[in-house]
Amino acid sequence: PQLANQIAAGEVVERPASVVKELVENSLDAGASQIDIDIEKGGSKLIRIRDNGSGIAEQELVLALSRHATSKIGNLDDLAQITSLGFRGEALASISSVSRLTLTSKPAGQAAAWQAQAEGRDMAVTVKPAAHPDGTSIEVVDLFFNTPARRKFLRTDKTEFSHIDELIKRLALSRFDVSWQLNHNGQSVRRLPLANSDNARQKRVALLCGKAFAEQAAYIENSYGVMKLSGWILAPQACQSQPGCQYCYVNGRMMRDKLLNHAIRQAYGERLTAEQQPGFVLYLQITPAEVDVNVHPAKHEVRFHQARLVHDFVVSALSDALAQLAN
Ligand code: ADP
Ligand code: MG
């Protein structure tokens, strides 16, 4: 199983940031409202994620570490309506096959915490009692220690960490209902308290996109039929030549979508010079039946069934807001 898992890991685990992505998505799926992340040496030495989510029961720990074991799909019909982020049941098995992974967890209703670790070629899982508050911690030590070819592809600690930081920034801008902490080599890099009020959300945007963005962006909210667009858009006169915050979310997922980017550019239109970059943090909510999110395996692309309609709605919602900002 180790070899099979390592091959699967080749698809899931490219670099430390992809490990962090999988683990954080599990924490979000578990309903966590607090996620603390410790990184050492860009993640190659240590990735530790602690959440206060629903936890994993003692008797489920072994299963959580085995391949194609997911608690998130009951039957094939569920596939059509996946709302959780992960569903292939591959991440933990893959990551533990290319690192020293320890899983410690305690569901709220369980008297004590338990810890699991898979080791060796047969990936035998050992389980023992541990101390842990309600929730889950996953420690990934020495990533790729047993796959030297993969380890060689890692860039500098600084670069690897910057990918992790970017990922957390992206997630923190879409999950204001979660408090985030990110540390690198024992230093606090991000400390983002829960942001459940308009004021607190504004503060978080200032922390993540900068004060200038927070002060010179207009908050918009606009709906049309099954679509709703909300978020912040930067006043044209405040747009700089280096790109600042440029984030688009569709139904809560970050997307790099051509159609949306095109619509945003069109809305700014003549208001920007060739050098100026738009700034935006936008959330499009649309009836799930109107989109396919699995066009691209990394799920950064989306296909809208009524592409023209979505495009024109975004252009008109943003043009209105920008026209007001320009006054
Ligand atoms: P998937 O997310 O695709 O189901 P994973 O390999 O990422 O598969 O995780 C396997 C299982 O372990 C999940 O289905 C879930 O039951 C459990 N799990 C993993 N991480 C957590 C967590 N942080 N909190 C609660 N359960 C978790
Ligand atoms: Mg998962």
Automatic annotation (TrEMBL):
One of its GO terms (biological process) is mismatch repair. GO terms for molecular function: ATP binding; ATP hydrolysis activity; ATP-dependent DNA damage sensor activity; mismatched DNA binding. Residues 205-323 form the DNA mismatch repair protein S5 domain. Keywords: DNA damage, DNA repair. The keyword rRNA-binding does not apply. One of its GO terms (cellular component) is mismatch repair complex. The keyword DNA repair applies. This protein is involved in the repair of mismatches in DNA. It is required for dam-dependent methyl-directed DNA mismatch repair. May act as a 'molecular matchmaker', a protein that promotes the formation of a stable complex between two or more DNA-binding proteins in an ATP-dependent manner without itself being part of a final effector complex. Belongs to the DNA mismatch repair MutL/HexB family. This is DNA mismatch repair protein MutL.
